[in-house]
Predict the 3D structure of the following.
Amino acid sequence: MSLTKKIKIFFLSLIYFFYKELSNFINDTKNIFKLYFFVNSKKNLSFKRFIKSNTKVFKNFNSNKKENFILVDTIMAHPGYICTQLIISKFIQKIIGVELVILNRKNNALIRSVGNSYNIQNFLHLKKDSFIIRFLNFIKLLYSLINISKLDTVKKIKLNNVKIGEIAYDHYVRYSGDVYIKTINFKYIYFFFEATEYHKIINSIFDKNNYKGIVLSETQFIPSAIVFQNALSKKIKVYARYGGPKKIGIRVYDNPKQVYTWKQKFDIKDFNKIKNNFKQKSSKDGYRIIHNRINGINNDQDLNDTKIAFKKGIKFTKKELCKKYNWDLKKPIVGIFDHSYTDGLFISGRSIFQTNYEWINYTFNQIKKINDVNWLIKSHPIKLSETHKPLTSTEIEFNKIIGSNFNNIKLFSDNLSYSDLFDILSAIITGNGTVGIEFATFGVPCILANHSHYDHLGFTYKPKSKKKYDHLLNNFKNIRKLNNEQKINSRIYTSLELNLSLHNLSLLPKFQTNSEIYYKKNYMNFWKNLDRKLKYFNLKHDEFYKGLKYQIKNNKTHTIKKNY
């Protein structure tokens, strides 16, 4: 890196540091006051009734073992998430007898009030150093990173086995939308600094007490990924939830090697147990779930992008599609299903390609050389970043690399019926998306370009190198339809992920996951519905509690239903 560029990055980094510190201070202050007035307002009767009812239910719901502690993550300050975390933690407390400590980003009135209603009195927050100390630390870090400059080198940096460089990169891509970064810039430097500062705080928290576990909602991004990796590096058991908002599963992590293991990656022994004992039933269940999804019958567990993907569109046959695109009807049609370039970069680790963007870029350039296949590109439904800015999209990359020069390569039109592709495609390619499971249900083979939660179950092709990936791209004529056993395996996995490992949490009402519901009037029903749920709560009959108890007592990785 030239001296001029170093000077430019240095000053831009300083400006960005002051901007972020000021904006964070303003937002934090606003939220603290907003939550204080919310909690103490006489108008919020639904909230106050919930606090009163909840206090009664959990008054004697505690542990006598004061020497064992479990942390409860409430970093994601969403009331639905907070209550979910606290309920799960109280159940764990009941099962194994531990003292609970709430970990939150900021010391705010809402978390304290709600936490107290669950009979939890211990609170920790991620308290940062003073501005002066942070500024001096930033200057010191800035000098060292500028001298390194290469992003690939910085990404490899670890602190106490915590992958600081990768976490910062993951966070940067997520919140900037920039997938083209090759060298460090002022934004990445700031996020790297944030990662190191949070690591210092979190590492200190774990060192000061002998925590037996932590209940975690998120394992990606800053600071959640740092909490997660610190816990694993210190052999602290992690109870990570997935699913939701009503039906929830727990994945237990207890080994640092599991840091990039998907929550829904089930142990082959558990899979085989279900298959051996409930083969027909679980297979039918999995087929039902996927069949309903592709026909627009969504359930609460389907993500928004899944619901968007399976919206109704214009129906078509293979003949009609080939006519539309002027394709040779005799050629196989292979679908390439793109990902979001900014989400889940390291959720299951990386295989051949370091990012989703690198994969699609490479794939587009390879298929330009292959003329005996009709290629149909399906873009990812998410088009906006966390800041609501347009993301780098499949369409942009397609127009840049493919354009109109290759008649056998086309973008799938959003107004067409996605469901019809299940009868038309000869095979599909994805990084690690759920499409691999969906198409396998109907016998369509799938090539995975990355590690996935279902890549060990025998119904996908998973090349171990670019050379082997290229070989598969060039030999679709040799890739056969899945046999019956492979289809059954995919259906059983679906049943495991979306039914058998999820349990209804009776104390939770349905809620929106993408809204700041603690101060919006239309979400006062959340607290009202929480209060209503308490009236009918019976611990002995709670499905989730029974599943969690069985999991913990039998040292299981997942909350798989024992009676199916």
User: Anything to note?
Assistant: Residues 3-40 form the longest helix (38 residues).
